[in-house]
């Protein structure tokens, strides 16, 4: 593929699309192509993303397959259910573009899981865009799969946080996968930009509230799928996200039963081994715990792990920026791999804090 | 005891002391007695609690046993370790005051637990100030014990939230107590008013961060003690608190394995039965989840429960205001019982929201 | 009027209506009557106001004049434009109820001002519900007018903050009224509960943004009207509100030119004199500045004033809770006066902080 | 000067120093040299700046002139009063380094102003690091001065916001400089990283509070100095900053009397003309107002202006990130100029939002 590559973004006026744009503006081998939107088509970018000064006067066009044709890469930042049709239309038009879907449509392998959690027909499965995912069968990581991908399903933000937090324990067997409990503190941008009463600032400020409690959240089968890939025979997961008053960030606290006979040093070694060479996932020094603020704007996952001998459980905490490592940064990392570029190209490693 | 009762507060310039004051100012049978402080002694109340207009010109006096003598009730809102000496001095001086300790010193029954988690000699055990605590042995609740108490150990704020959230399941046996996992979203006022770098606003805003991870938090043995009182033979608890950017509030998400053969209706019935007549603890209608904002300023605990059949776990969420039901309101509720007053007297039931 | 008085609230599912409810639940001479809503009619109160535990199971009825009849007091907490028709229907039905309009419809005396700022026909003028307003002509305060009122126009929240901040200077002539500048930091609840994109938490958190800049805000003529009542011959006001990430509160910084020859002591004396006997408005000790947090939940206005000799200006800062002193508390204070009750009855003076 | 240039930072463990580091890590012609600290000397960078992953294992050294020698550039991010001695020691040691002082010591030209506002002897005046500052006398901007500077005084954050907001009106004479009023909404990072009770999150969350009211803020003479440079004969400024619950950002609302006979179009044209070619300062399209969130992490100033004919005043609002355009970004922009590099090199133009 000749450089620079041109990238079109569908759904560019939302938060995920805006973050893809922000990162691509700093990518040395990319030019920004068509930016499409639905109800905001025709508006200047600056009206909806006043932070994207470099594009203030560009305008959104309608989200149609036609507008997305002719680019090397197409990023879909659409509500779930909308990606399938666009992808099919691109295919039908003979597009050879690399397509990345930031939505959920193509993440799940199991159609039954899809139908149970999303209540609609399954659109099919694309290669999964989590380069750090451990593949137990092959002894490699998912990045090897992504090097030849032409379609990529970008993971859910919560899924990335929980998977990165716990997978070293699963892959090494130092924890059991059959009784995982994950509770997350989530920033509001994960809920998107649509105006809903429970998302307004007056409701959010000074409050914490759980949602999708009791095994109903759509990210559950996706986490389970990842952990099976990482080596678990069977996965059972209690998963509860919680909205807290911050715009960005996921702090995922995941606990698992400690495998009988395993000591703390072995646990720590598992995490160290798996993340020693990862450019974006870091085990913090002992005693230092992740803060979401430290990841804001960066494609970084900060991880810590501790053994609670009294409770017989391992506790791991993973902090990410839901819009970066959880969505747009993860997408670009996968894009880099699929395009044969350095995996880290254009991706910030340092957060914006405080 | 003649009315009104006079109440002295030791440590009145801190957050817990200030909240005791705020509530007592609305209590119809109380007059405010001595207000003591350490480094703020001599200052007007209005300088440290500008929200307490009714006391703006009162001044703090030194925290000495002498200044606390001559009152019907003494509330200790001191750092742990400081209560024992004051209580002993009051005792020695022949005080017949009801003493409530908002600190940790007298909560734990087991001296070994105390020493393991606090690292200092045990000061002894006082009657435990959680009126709603289920007592499996007697088939009553803790309020019966409190009616004759002259010394009361006010529970820890996190302890109240977790205990109220999960105890109906424990008491009825619909959940197992041997593998509990609790993760909490905590407002910053729980960390007190001392100036520490990790508590400054620049660090807190836009961030979530866990603390005391891995079985080290001092509230763990206290929760276990409560749940044993509620009927558990053995308790194992993984407990992780998380600071999120709000001033007040605890949202405690606690999960427990569902006892084999129990269905959702039975679970819900357990919670309904146990809280049907409680004035301050409320099971929300199905599908509505607690928000901490709804409890701000009120002595209210909002509870919800759901069964996650896929994970084989019950999830319960309890929201309280850490300074009210979690500290000052809980203290006054217990005080009312010990004084023979209506349990709810002077305690707000409606929160200040949004 | 016999006690308790029954109070109906139109628009009870919004923020202003909810706050009227919260305060009335603590009012010793009031029973809660009909609670009406528009799209939320039929819903339980607990669904929209989970903090109002005492009314969790009450249901909203449709907002019709019929539903509001038969009460001693009717509080209208409706969008502007909606109050006039309801008031007329109550009148036509022969209702003798005291009616308080929390909306803007009946605040302005000058129909031309109304039409210029609201763009619709003027609904007429009701007695103005700011008891502390200085009336230069009569040498009294507005509370005297309210004692015989049967219709009351509750002031705008920003108006209350700016008026209370600056009126002592105007009334005494120690500052000039011809070049006032007010800039406000405003919590989001002032914008109401309607879901709009610019009000969602993701947009609000970590951001400050002005609105209605350049002399367009509808509260401007109302402030001018008040300051003329307080003695200004002519008023010119630059007024800029700013949304900042808090749910409640207004911090109004107002500056005025110092009248030639006036010294600091004279300025301070003006504020002291005018607020010495006010139960809800307090000049803080020198050097202590108002915080909005100190007023949360209370019907309190905290005021401070300083002379900037270098700039030739007086700076005054007034903090209130926009939903209490700025709306619901102010309404109840006026209601008390009109009903012949103690002005302070049922109104909190102590804030909920931190 | 050969490239890359090595840059040492004194006071690198604070917020200003951390932000200089964050930006320099993205600067293509810079290598990071010595990082000094006072009480944090010896600690790894990752402990104090967990967001700066690229430097996690580097360690701070003591803040001594010796440690700062041997670099091409030295950035001083120290409390005011500390820079003078370091600068003198570097001079004495024969250092030819470019020195940028992020503190206040060398900003003011007038020693009397310094002594009046800072209460200590004046350390002297360095070239002022605000490239966009209009110089009325020469008809150029301050960037021309900076191209040959070897010492640079980085402006105060509030000063940058107010100056950029109002200077086009001053320079063109469309507003009067003799009665300016500026009120600012400020994020907490401007107050630094020191632990003080009034800065802790519990105090900050849900609150707005002014500080340094009444003409006492040390940035006042600096703003006046700038506006005189921009062409004002005499400047009078009322200046009130306000802490609001956000970590970063300044929203400066500044008003000035409209010069007699000037219309709105002329006002707008003044701002357009002066900022048309500025790479970092942008006049927004009419009707769109700056938000601080849009500038987070970027060296961007967003400006808007409106005429309030009723009040006879121009209102201008300027939003910046206090740590970027207000401190570290401004410093690097000036450094680029002094080194003969492109002025915009290494400086983000797009913010991190939401």
TrEMBL record, chains A, B, C, D:
Gene3D superfamilies, per database record: Dihydrodipicolinate Reductase, domain 2, NAD(P)-binding Rossmann-like Domain
Residues annotated as domain Semialdehyde dehydrogenase NAD-binding: 6-141
Keywords: Amino-acid biosynthesis, Arginine biosynthesis, Cytoplasm, NADP, Oxidoreductase
Cited PROSITE patterns: ARGC
Keyword Transferase: no
Localisation: Cytoplasm
Key word tRNA-binding present: no
Family matches, as SUPFAM superfamilies: Glyceraldehyde-3-phosphate dehydrogenase-like, C-terminal domain, NAD(P)-binding Rossmann-fold domains
Alphabetized InterPro entries for the sequence: AGPR, AGPR_AS, AGPR_dimerisation_dom, AGPR_type-1, NAD(P)-bd_dom_sf, Semialdehyde_DH_NAD-bd
Top-level lineage group: Bacteria
Class in the EC hierarchy, top level: oxidoreductase
SMART domains assigned: Semialdhyde_dh
Active site as annotated: 157
Protein name as catalogued: N-acetyl-gamma-glutamyl-phosphate reductase
């Amino acid at each position: 593929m000749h450089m620079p590559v041109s990238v079109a973004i569908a759904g560019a006026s939302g938060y995920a699309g805006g973050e893809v744009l922000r990162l691509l503006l700093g990518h040395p081998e990319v030019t920004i192509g068509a930016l499409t939107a639905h109800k905001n088509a025709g508006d200047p970018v600056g009206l909806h993303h006043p932070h994207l000064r470099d594009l203030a006067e560009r305008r959104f066009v309608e989200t149609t397959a036609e507008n997305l044709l002719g680019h090397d890469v197409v990023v879909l930042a659409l509500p779930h259910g909308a990606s399938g049709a666009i992808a099919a239309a691109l295919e039908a038009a003979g597009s050879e573009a690399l397509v990345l879907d930031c939505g959920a449509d193509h993440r799940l392998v199991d159609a039954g899981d899809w139908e149970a959690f999303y209540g609609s027909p399954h659109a099919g499965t694309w290669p999964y865009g989590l380069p750090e995912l451990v593949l137990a069968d092959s002894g490699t990581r998912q990045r090897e799969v992504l090097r030849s991908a032409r379609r990529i399903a970008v993971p859910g933000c919560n899924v990335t946080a929980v998977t990165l937090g716990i997978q070293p324990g699963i892959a090494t067997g130092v924890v059991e996968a059959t009784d995982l409990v994950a509770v997350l503190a989530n920033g509001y941008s994960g809920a998107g930009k649509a105006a809903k009463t429970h998302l307004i600032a007056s409701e959010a400020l000074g409050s914490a509230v759980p949602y999708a409690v009791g095994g109903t959240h759509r990210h559950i089968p996706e986490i389970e799928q990842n952990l099976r890939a990482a080596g678990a025979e069977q996965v059972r997961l209690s998963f509860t996200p919680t909205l807290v008053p911050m715009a960005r960030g996921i702090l995922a606290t995941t606990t698992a039963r400690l495998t009988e006979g395993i000591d703390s040093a072995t646990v720590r070694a598992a995490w160290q081994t798996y993340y020693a060479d990862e450019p974006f996932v870091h085990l913090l020094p002992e005693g230092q715990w992740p803060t979401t603020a430290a990841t804001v704007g960066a494609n970084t996952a900060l991880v810590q792990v501790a053994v609670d001998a009294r409770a017989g459980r391992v506790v791991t905490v993973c902090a990410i920026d839901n819009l970066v490592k959880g969505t747009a940064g993860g997408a670009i990392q996968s894009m880099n791999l699929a395009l044969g570029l350095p995996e880290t190209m254009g991706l910030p490693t340092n957060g914006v804090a405080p």
